[in-house]
Amino acid sequence: MAMIIGFLDIFIAFIFFLVFRCLLLYKQTHKFCPRTGQFLGCFRVCSSKSIVSTTVDPVNIHYILSSNFVNYPKGMEFKKIFEVIEDAIFNIDSGMWEDMRNSSHAIFSRQDFQSLWVSTSVSKINQGLVPILDNAVEKNILVDLQDVFQRFLFDTSTILMTGYDLKCLSIEMPKVDFGDAVDGVSDAIFYRHVKPACGSYNIEEFRPERWISASGRLKHEPSYKFLAFNAGPRTCLGKKLTFLQMKTVAVNIIQNYEIQVVEGHKTEPVPSVLLRMQHGLKVRVAKI
Ligand SMILES: *[C@@H]1O[C@H](CO)[C@@H](O)[C@H](O)[C@H]1NC(C)=O
Question: Membrane-spanning residues where (predicted)?
Fold first, then answer.
């Protein structure tokens, strides 16, 4: 169970965690964020009629997720919204959360578990990813990398969780009912509970220099500035494993293929609790 819960954390790459629990200013009179002037805005959480404030200010995020973590439990409102995942680690607080976090951590940090994760990824690359890319090269067809990587993650996760390979990542690209259901559920949660009024900035631009320093080295930003894996005591337990898998896949692709995003392809985010692209990521593949 702990493992399934841990993988949910990996799956849910960018939950709008703050959006729901950031600051119920009206209820939490004893503690305020340091920069209350810099909240983005308010919107209604439909089920509760309560007003929720949102923030993107890293100082506030650090305060809420790290330095004052214990004052900001998820609470019952959050649990009601995400009832579909019941008592998953993502949805619980205090002792139950700590207990589950500790047991998941014990599994994730084991050397043999990490080795299994890598060997599972490598064999999925060889038996799933490479045939798809080779087929695309040979037949000169476009590939939706978002779909490919979702299937990759889905297969490798279910192998580790259940010991069974669903083989979603294959040239036939079979329909994945469970994957569709996860997308459907997360969209439904979003539309049912949030009337979005969130701000946005130039997130659509491809600007890798955001992550490169003036001297050309990789820029390390604190996790509260980049919430893909959350921050503070709730930092995603699968973060290390995810990076391990991403690097394994990236190295294999970069060494063997040239990938080019189809000209004019629009990468718009889907308004949902899972961050994904509206039209996938259509690319052309060539062999190096
Ligand atoms: C979880 O682990 C921490 C650090 O090892 C420990 O202090 C704490 O008592 C543990 N909590 C539970 C509920 O097991």
Answer: 6-26
In a domain, 131, yes or no: yes
Q: What pLDDT is stored for residue 121 in this prediction? A: 96
Q: Residues 145-194: pLDDT tens digits? A: 999 999 999 999 999 989 999 899 999 999 989 888 888 888 888 888 76
Q: Which domain holds residue 150?
A: 111-178+222-287
Residue 99 lies in a domain: no
* pLDDT number for residue 48: 55
Residue 47: what pLDDT?
52
Output the CA 251–ligand 1 centroid distance in Å. Answer: 37
CA-nearest residue, atom 4 of ligand 1: 102
Instruction: Tokens 């949910």: give the residue.
Output: 8
Q: Specify the number of domains making up the chain.
A: 1
User: 269 by DSSP, 3-state: which?
Assistant: strand
Ligand 1 binding pocket includes 102 (Cβ within 6 Å) = yes
**What is the position in ligand 1's atom list of the atom closest to the CA of 99?**
13
Proportion of the chain above pLDDT 70, given as a percent: 78
- pTM score of the predicted model: 0.73
Residue whose CA lies nearest to ligand 1 atom number 1: 102
Which residues of 89-219 form beta strands (DSSP E)? 143-144
Distance, in Å, from the CA atom of 162 to the CA atom of 151, rounded to the nearest integer, reads 16
Q: Within a domain: residue 87? A: no
Q: Is residue 21 part of a domain?
A: no
Q: In whole angstroms, what is the distance from residue 198 CA to residue 40 CA?
A: 7
